[in-house]
Write a structure and sequence with these properties.
Layout: H1 8-20, H2 25-32, H3 36-47, H4 49-84, H5 91-126, E1 152-157, E2 160-165
Antiparallel strand pairs: 1-2
């Protein structure tokens, strides 16, 4: 029987989506018509702890970027509303702009709520994680290069210089940590 050739770039998003839905590797393989090992090849790198942390860093950056874009959009909407208020023929457009402004404000509130609730929960958890030192740095994970925009300090592992992250200043990163361990256990 000839070996099947798969388009990994096409299968990977499907496999990741099925995994996000909670399916096992075996169930994913059955749905995609491939082997369990092929599913492992496609998604295992996305499930490693270091990958989760990297994804959290990217998500935090995207949230910050989105919040900035919303602020810019709100400013532009305000300018449009003030210029349209002088023109009587454009009442319908003014109404639509007002509706858009309400949606943007709802989105901004949602992002702010997500950031506040994650930060609040993580601030509480930080006091109990055995990997956080007194200065707020995670001593379990390290990077070989400094991540731009993040509060990191240098350290060493063997003969190599590494960087560790201050998770009290960047608490969103802890949402991806599979190694949380309470103190005293």
């Amino acid at each position: 029987m000839p070996k099947k050739i798969y388009d990994d770039e096409k299968l990977r998003p499907e496999a990741l989506e099925l995994r996000r839905q909670g399916l096992s590797y075996r169930e994913i393989a059955k749905r995609l018509g491939c082997s369990v090992y092929k599913v492992y090849e496609l998604i295992s790198e996305y499930e490693s702890p270091s990958s989760r942390i990297k994804q959290s860093i990217e998500l935090a950056g995207k949230l910050d970027e989105l919040a900035s874009k919303i602020n810019t959009l709100e400013t532009q909407i305000s300018k449009i509303q003030s210029s349209l208020s002088n023109v009587k023929m454009l009442e319908d457009l003014t109404s639509e702009v007002s509706k858009l402004r309400e949606k943007v404000e709802e989105l901004a509130d949602s992002i702010e709520w997500i950031q506040r609730s994650v930060n609040r929960r993580l601030r509480e958890d930080h006091h109990g994680c055995k990997w956080i030192d007194k200065s707020g740095y995670c001593t379990l994970w390290h990077w070989y290069e400094k991540v731009g925009g993040w509060n990191m300090r240098p350290g060493t592992v063997g003969d190599r210089i590494v960087y560790i992250l201050n998770v009290k200043k960047h608490p969103l990163i802890c949402t991806a940590c599979p190694s949380y361990e309470p103190r005293g256990y």
